[in-house]
TrEMBL record, chain B:
This is Succinate dehydrogenase. It comes from the Bacteria. One of its GO terms (cellular component) is membrane. Keywords: Heme, Iron, Membrane, Metal-binding, Transmembrane, Transmembrane helix. The chain crosses the membrane at residues 53-76, 96-116, 136-155. The lineage of its organism: Bacteria, Bacillati, Actinomycetota, Actinomycetes, Kitasatosporales. GO terms for molecular function: metal ion binding. Residues 1-42 are annotated as: Disordered. InterPro entries: SQR/QFR_C/D, SuccDH_FuR_B_TM-su. It is found in: Membrane. Pfam families: Sdh_cyt.
């Protein structure tokens, strides 16, 4: 690893690492997502067949992971913007990170039933 | 440096009054890095600054677009289970959602591609590796943006 990519090792560094990792994950997802959506130009059957895999329990868990990545990247991205543009941003960066994490946990709990509910019904029976 | 006063030392007694008055003003000291006619013009342009600003502006817009998209696709109206060709046909019948998806496609792809460019610059140390990785990145980005745009504009609900 190039020198200087690991530093300090506190919240600020780990939030930066997580921002980077989630950003890359979302980008790769988006690439595949545009390809699968393009199947609507092939045939309704081809599209529906691929979308059917999105509805399986295993992929539901992946979708929950995607939601986790996006929510963190979005909330922490707003924090980065606040650090850059708000005059007190740098002073409150740590407080803002804990706010980001708290909001993230609440939203993830809220997303649990809508995203994973159908998978749970399929696996455990309704 | 332009100096109008040459006789006084400029350093008065610590507790005393300043040696400078309206009629005897202090020498004007130019900022050390001021651009003048003699200094060379900046050759770098402002691309990196524009890219930095774009990341922040597109990020703010993407919060609305992407989280709205996830709400529609995964939460409202039965979640993923409702998605299918008929559902997409219903959504792209509306210019509003066409523009929404188009904007989301362009902003997310450009934001993500620029982010990856930064990451390649950070980790790929050899010039040749950087060149190839960026070539691959730009090719994939242009391809994806064009394909997604084409799909939105040529979508045909009566394809069959
Ligand atoms: C698992 C979660 C997701 C599902 C189920 C989903 C579903 C869909 C569906 C059904 C469409 C078709 C058009 C429409 O209904 O608007 C679509 C299009 C699109 N989605 Fe998603 N989406 C998801 C996540 C995302 C994310 C995270 C992004 C952005 C980073 C995204 C970006 C797009 C774009 C840009 C289009 C337009 C594609 C094109 O131009 O061909 N989607 N999505
Ligand atoms: C949901 C709203 C989003 C917000 C508020 C947001 C915000 C940001 C900000 C402010 C940065 C710059 C970080 C810095 O300069 O240190 C950034 C970087 C990045 N974003 Fe986003 N972003 C969002 C969505 C996305 C999406 C949809 C993608 C993928 C397609 C993405 C991929 C990336 C990548 C790869 C980076 C570079 C990370 C790095 O250099 O460490 N972002 N984001």
């Amino acid at each position: 690893m190039p020198a200087g990519t690991l530093y300090r090792g506190r919240e600020g560094m780990w939030s930066w690492v997580a921002h980077r990792v989630t950003g890359v994950l979302i980008f790769f997802f988006l690439f595949v997502h545009v390809l699968d959506t393009a199947l609507v130009r092939v045939s309704p059957e081809a599209y529906d067949e691929v979308v059917a895999t999105y509805k399986t329990p295993l992929v539901a868990v992946l979708e929950y992971g995607l939601v986790a990545a996006i929510l963190f990247h979005a909330l922490n991205g707003l924090r980065v913007i606040a650090v850059d543009f708000w005059s007190k941003g740098a002073r409150y960066q740590k407080h803002m990170l804990w706010t980001v994490m708290a909001v993230w946990v609440v939203l993830m709990l809220g997303a649990m039933y809508p995203v994973l509910g159908h998978a749970a019904r399929e696996v455990f029976g309704s | 440096m332009s100096t109008t006063e040459t006789t006084a030392s400029g350093i008065g007694p610590v507790e005393g009054a300043s040696v400078y008055t309206v009629d005897n003003p202090a020498p004007l000291i130019e900022p050390p890095r001021k651009r003048t006619k003699k200094t060379p013009k900046s050759t770098r342009g402002n691309f990196e600054m524009a890219a930095w600003l774009f990341m922040r502006l597109s990020g703010i817009v993407l919060v609305v677009l992407v989280i709205g998209h996830l709400l529609i696709q995964l939460v409202l109206d039965g979640g993923v289970s409702k998605i299918g060709f008929a559902f997409v046909a219903g959504r792209w019948a509306s210019p509003f959602w066409q523009v929404w998806d188009l904007l989301m496609l362009w902003l997310a792809m450009l934001h993500g591609a620029n982010g990856l460019r930064t990451i390649i610059n950070d980790y790929a140390e050899r010039a040749n590796t950087r060149l190839w990785l960026k070539g691959l990145l730009y090719t994939a980005t242009v391809f994806t943006i064009l394909l997604g745009t084409l799909v939105i504009f040529t979508f045909d609900p009566n394809i069959r």
